[in-house]
Amino acid sequence: MRCLKLSDPWSSRGLTWLAAGLILAVTLPQFLWGLGDCNLWIPLEARYALVAREMSEAGQWILPHLGGQVYPDKPPLLFWTTALISSLGSGVSEWTVRLPSAFAAISVCLITWGMGRRLFSPKAAILAALILATSGGFFWSGRQALPDMLLTLWTTGACWAIWEWLVAKQRIAATVAGLCLGLATLTKGPVGVVLPILAALAYLTVRRHWKALWGRDGLLCLGTFLGVTLTWFVPATAQGGMAYAQATLWHHTLERYVLAWEHTAPWYFYFGAFPAEFLPWTLFLPQALVYGAQQRQPHTHEGWWFTLCWLVTILVFFSISTGKRDIYILPLFPAAALLVGWTWSCWWDSAPNGVAAWAMRLPSIILGLGLLGLAAGIWRGVGGLVPNSSILLLPHTPEMRFWMCVLLVAMGLFIAAAAMAMPPQLVYVSVVGCTWVAMLTVVLWVYTPQFNARYPIKSFAAVINAAVQPNQPLALCGPLNDLALGFNLGRFVPTLPEIPEVIHYLGEGREAFCVVGAEASQRLREETGRPFRIVARQEFDRSTLFLISNQR
How far is the C-alpha of 101 from the C-alpha of 146, rounded, in Å? Predict the structure, then answer.
């Protein structure tokens, strides 16, 4: 199939604003609606929230701290943005700690749209932006308080600026590229500069455009990058010493990349993780790769090659690393969305026939049948076959199961019928619309209520704060989710990981309180020979937490 070059009505100024408005209409509720409703229980989210809170309260803006200790794991940009946003309201909360990721996700969709206009066409750009917004992993990451979406914002901006600099010969773009590379580095370390540079080098190698690198523009990009990063790194090193620099640049970057001590996985991990995370649009990505290889229009061909190098480079880079998490490959999602968006724009302009028609129709039918199968599974209660990490995405109450099944059946039939009817516009709208509705429905009315019921940390923290006065000693004892407890309690609470420490703490003369798990509570009774007063108890998933006192 060849993509015909037709006049694009979306290129007019009025429809450009309409396209931007459409993207915002889709993404604003998608990433902001109910953003702060889910309890802060996931340890990583709680850790970053505590660092931002400590930064704001102590005024330590150069070196991030956690529990009074220097925190060298991540550079400070995420903590800066969280602290600044929180300062406009009542402090760091579930809402403000997730806002940087949500705003970044919306911005990435807009940048993908702008980049698609330059690499492909205005129509491909708007289709790609909506594809990105409705890809599963991107949507989920945009509602979590993690640095990866902010990193994706800057790496996507850097890739766009590098294209404008090296291909479109826009000199100012070299400065913008250096700025984005610097901000990406301040978000998650050297990986922020490595990813776009590797993508650019891969493109220049494949297309043999090495001459584009030489000249004063390269020095301009480098100078801007160094100016941004060294503005923070120099005073940070002055305060934290070489130990901080070594921990930040070596231990938590290169050493973690080569010899990861957590989240280890085989080299092929992302070849399964990315297709799952990019659903439902993974079903159309192979077609984009095949059609792009057949494309001969010079401008589109260059855009396809640049985007392909971007996607493949990041996938290979993280596959080589020994440490792997699904969210690490988030920066390649805009590239995949651009490729799929361009393919849909070709189908939109000229309805495919023959084999090309089935390249669009068959994945859509599979998607529709998949939704029908999911509805049948939910109705029959096959939750035991779902991984524990995803079980909260399935409704547990009979009433919610019924309505979710009705919704899934309606969406599955709608997508399958659209695919059989064949108009590309109808098929695309049905997939985008149904995915958008399903995402919001699940996160707002299924996942969040069930997550809060399973991990009622806010209500337990309220009980603790009501029972323990601010001037009374309180400690977290044994293996607990101390980060989430510390955040929700709103006060610094020391952790005593070993039972002998707990016994010594509770053996002091004054009244002291302690939060313990069921196993630690049993060991305390066995080793001390006396029961402790249980002030409060709370069930959390498969465990029970107690607030105990040494005074009867």
Answer: 7
User: Element (H or E) spanning 545, and its range?
Assistant: strand 543-549
Of 438, 454, 470, the last residue of a domain is 454
CB-side exposure of 380: number of CA atoms within 13 Å?
8
Give the other-Cβ count within 10 Å of 305's Cβ. Answer: 18
Cα-Cα-Cα-Cα dihedral sign, residues 310, 288, 31, 374 = negative
- Show pLDDT as tens, one digit a residue, over the chain (552 residues): 556 555 565 566 667 889 999 999 999 999 999 999 999 999 899 999 999 999 998 888 999 999 888 998 899 999 999 999 998 888 899 999 999 999 999 999 999 999 999 999 999 999 999 999 999 999 999 999 999 999 999 999 999 999 999 888 888 999 999 999 999 999 999 999 999 999 999 999 888 776 666 668 888 999 999 999 999 999 999 998 888 888 888 777 777 777 776 778 899 999 999 999 999 999 999 998 888 877 766 666 788 999 999 999 999 999 999 888 999 999 999 999 999 999 999 888 777 777 778 888 899 999 999 999 988 888 876 555 555 556 777 888 888 889 889 999 999 999 999 988 878 899 999 999 999 999 999 999 999 999 999 999 999 999 999 999 888 889 888 777 788 888 999 888 888 888 888 888 888 778 889 999 888 888 888 888 878 889 999 998 888 899 998 887
Residue 2 lies in a domain: no
- 418 plus 499 within the same structural domain: no
Yes or no: say if 55 and 97 are a contact pair by the CB < 8 Å rule: no
Identify whether residues 482 and 396 lie together within a single domain: no
Alpha-carbon distance of 273 to 458, in angstroms, equals 32
Within 13 Å of residue 263, how many CA atoms lie on the same side as its CB?
Answer: 14
CA atoms within 13 A on the CB side of 66: 19
Domain holding 541: CATH number?
3.40.190
Same domain, 373 and 238: no
State the total domains in the chain: 3
Domain that holds residue 377: 355-454
Q: Give the 3-state secondary structure of 268-300.
A: CCHHHHHHHHCCCHHHHHHHHHHHHHHCCCHHH
| Pairwise CA distance, residues 374 & 139, whole Å | 20
Does the reported pTM lie above 0.85?
yes
Residues 65 and 51 sit within 8 Å (Cβ to Cβ): yes
- Which one, of 532, 412, 515, lies nearest residue 464 by Cα? 515
Do 316 and 445 belong together in one domain? no
Bridge partners, 264 (sequence order): 323
Tokens of residue 336, six digits: 């995949």
DSSP-assigned letters across all residues of 106-159: HHHHHHHHHHHHHHT-HHHHHHHHHHHHTSHHHHHHTTS--THHHHHHHHHHHH
